[in-house]
Structure formats: structure tokens, C-alpha cells
Here is the input.
Amino acid sequence: MTSETTAAGLLRRLITIDSVNPGLVPGAAGEAAAARFTAEWLAEQSGGFAVRVLDHGAGRASVLAVARGTGGGRSLMLNGHLDTVALSSYDGDGLGPVERDGNVYGRGAYDMKSGIAAIMVAAAEAAAAPHRGDIVVALVADEEWASVGTEAVLREVVTDAAIVAEPSNLDLVIAHRGFALAEVTVHGVAAHGSRPDLGVDAIAKAGRFLTALDDLATRLAAGRPDPLVGTGGVHASTISGGIEYSTYPDRCSISVERRTVPGEDASTTDAELRAILTGIAAADPAFRFDLAVTAQRPPFAADQDSAVAHTVTTAFCEVTGAEPRRRGEAFWTDCALLDAAGIDTVMFGVDGAGAHAATEWVTLSSLDTVTQTLVRAITSYTG
Here is the structure.
């Protein structure tokens, strides 16, 4: 078993464990090895964690560890994801951690094995001391794709509050955007390329939709921004159609991503796209379409004056002498699922850069700051 006892040591060890999400890279390793390592580490700590590995099948797993309190305190979840994006897009050996100029480099160093390491060390230290409320550690699979890990955890336990240790550059994130995914299919009529009198070109018809979609993106960008996360957005993600040069294409499919802000949801996306498509159809009787919103995740917006936000702010002040900046974030996280379950949630994590990029790193000084802040926050919140 491991001898790593510091967050920096755990981070370096975690980077060496391949946990690429198979939802992103078919055939990838998945989180099982990382879950096994973290579960064994937590089980060895003196805080008395009851540790379970939640098996999601096919090399996928999450860890749920609970240190029960003596009673009368509030429960707190520390949540972070074990999965990473692809190694093939990393410049160098993504599984070979490199320390240079006070930073650690490697795939997942920033997003978010540094957060996992900070959670583990902080939770173990806080759980070793008397505490009234339960301390829950949720190290989850699949945040980068479908969030099956956090969904599984929420079927097992719901806490009073949660801190998600996604990288936030030492800011306190209290809101982020959501998203909705849609499939638009424009129908044509297949015919020989020499017979325009018989064929209807679905790709050409889809061009009208793409132009209107770009206009919608411009309107959204010019709209009234949410004070924390700005404006929503929309774009075409993929397009496919046609089978050969000499045949009129009978269909053209377009995948659309809509980034949503608080107050928007899947129905917003359906209404916007349907209005565009029906408007085109009204002007062109040959324009036929199907529309389906295939997936959605809600935006996240926390209470800025919540108990856990106050607790993290106070703890950060104790460590650094300054208050964290409060802000929103553009990308989606499992914060939204925890918040939707009625859990008072905030996001707080390390400084660095390179999430999903060719070079990824975390500053060791911020890793230490996050770890110390989490120890104080856990201790204060759970009593």
C-alpha cells in the first residue's frame, strides 16, 4: 500500500494512475484503478472511514467514504472526480508527473487529481479529531461525460452541504452554466444528381438553419448577462449528410449545443430551435425537419450567503489573510447535481491551468492552500 501522506505526494501518485474516461475515449482504462487506490488509502487512515467502492461496470468505479460524527453536527460532502480526458492529446507522458518551478505537470494535475489529493488529506486530518457531523468523501467516476458517479453517490447519501474541489484558481465559485444538447434532422428527397426536378437537397436546406442558428448565437451574446455567468450561447457541434457526389442527399443531421444560464433549461432550447425551424418551414414548403433535445444538465446557482460559503470564506481567510473572490464559471460541474438534490454547495479548488489541454499543471502552493482551507472548513462546518 502507499506511504504518501502529503497532498503533493498523493497528487504525484494519482497522476501515474490511468483513469481516462471511456465515455470520451472508447476502450480507455476508466476509474477503477484510481478508485481502488484511493479507497485503500482512506481505509488506512485513523479517522474511521467506512469505505465503499461503487461499481459502475466495465472498469468504472466511484468511492464513497463516511466518517460518522458523534451527533448533533452538520454533514459535509467533499466531492471530486477521478476521471480525466485523453492521454493522446497530452504533450509528453501524461502519466509521468513532472515537478518544475513549483508546479506539478501531468494529465489530471489540474483537472482534478490535485483536488482529489487535497480532499483525501484534509478529510483524513479532520476526521481524526472529534467531530459531531458526518464527513463524507465522494471520489466519483464520469464527471467528464455523464456523471454516473455523483448520481450513484446521491442515491446513497445526501448531506447538508458539499464542497466540490474542482480547480477554481482559489476563487469561491457559486454559479456556473448548464447545457442542453439537441439533434436537428433536415429531410430531403434522394434522386439522381441530374434530376433536380425530383430531388430535394437536405444539405442545402440545412444551410438556412445554420445561418439562423448563427443569428441566434449573436442575439444571445448581446442579451442581458447573468451577473455571475454572463450570457448563454449556442453552436453547431457536428454535421453529417449525403452519401455520394451523384445523389441528392435525403437527410442532413446537425448536433447543437446550447449553454444555459440560471433561468434557462431544456425547454428554452427546444422553444428557440423549434421557432427557427418552423419559421423556415413556413417560408419554404419543401423544408421538413425533426427536432429532439437529447440531453440536458441544469445551471448551478448557490446562495451567496449560505453557511458553507461563509465557512469556506472564513477558512480561506484564516489560511491566507484574504477573502476569496466570489464568481461564476463557464463550464458545467457536478455542483449542479448536488444543488438539485438540496445540498448547499460551493466549488473551491487549486490554481494552475491546462484543463483538457496539451500541457496541464497545478501550483503546489495552491494545493497546500486548498488542503489547509479544507481542513478548517470541514472542522468548522461539522463541529
Notes: The mean pLDDT is 97.
